[in-house]
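Before our next group meeting I need something from you. Please put the record directly below this note.
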Amino acid sequence: MSKQQGYIIVTGAAGFIGSCMVQYLNEKGFNNLIIADDFGVEEKRRNWEHKSYAHVVERYNLFDWLIMHEPYVDVVIHLGARTDTTEFDYAIHQELNVEYSEKIWQYCVDQNIPLIYASSAATYGAGEHGYNDDHNVVDSLQPLNPYGVSKNEFDKWALKQVVTPPSWAGLKFFNVYGPNEYHKARMASVIFHSFNQIQQNGEVKLFRSHRPDFKDGEQLRDFVYVKDVVKVIYWMMEKMQPSLASRQSANTGSSATQHASFINGLYNLGTGTARSFYDLAAATFRGVDKEPNITFIDMPADIRDKYQYFTEANMQKLRNAGYTDIFYALEDGLDDYVRNYLAAGKIW
């Protein structure tokens, strides 16, 4: 494949955000994808098998495969990770979220390839230092679980590197929701669980607050629709590799936009507006045209002291970098997700 037609690597491509990324790239005319993940997980098969791609590579074979085939790659979108916040064996997170990511980084350095990778708002812990994607606070952050620790450890490692990919960004995902998350079980969004509870019992059970400063159901999170997440990643990809925008415009007949040089670093990716879990559950009821019926249950003891009661992304850095599109409001994103995917039994 010529340098004018390089590949795009997407890791985590069988998972929630990764499979949505592949779908978005397909819709933008990109089929020259190398997708990597653990493809032996049967319940994820629906997420990836009908999408368009050039090569499927098992995640543990990726680096050997790259050495063997030497593909020309335009950009790496690294979304693969162990995302279970209730997995307390740090060695698992260390291997998949830190060491594997370091190998991805080194590959991008060696091959001079731009890198976009998934970090997480879990790095912010209880929010003692706010939710600002300021590099100066990264060393002071105190995540509440091993997953958040692993994501923060890689962020810290990346910021200390003298030799870097030509362009790179670590995106601190806040509470992402949307289609293709059905396989995540306990880790799926509250929207997914709320929809299923409504279908089964006609009610939604939310966690009771175990802090006096928050009423039941009034815990606040920054919920961001996955369609916005992949849209931001695509925008970053074009900023890092303007030739991709030119190629896509040639395919679609649209005019290409040349971008200024990209500023490397960490970026928040939320909406910038915190909303309550009660609002979320009530909007899910509206998505199935029912009146809210919400009750409260105790939070499981194993996550009670590791639970974020408030998150809200400061989005100014992304805006300063030039991203101007409006994010889905919670009600609009949720209505699209519930009506067009959950209720319809479809993936994206």
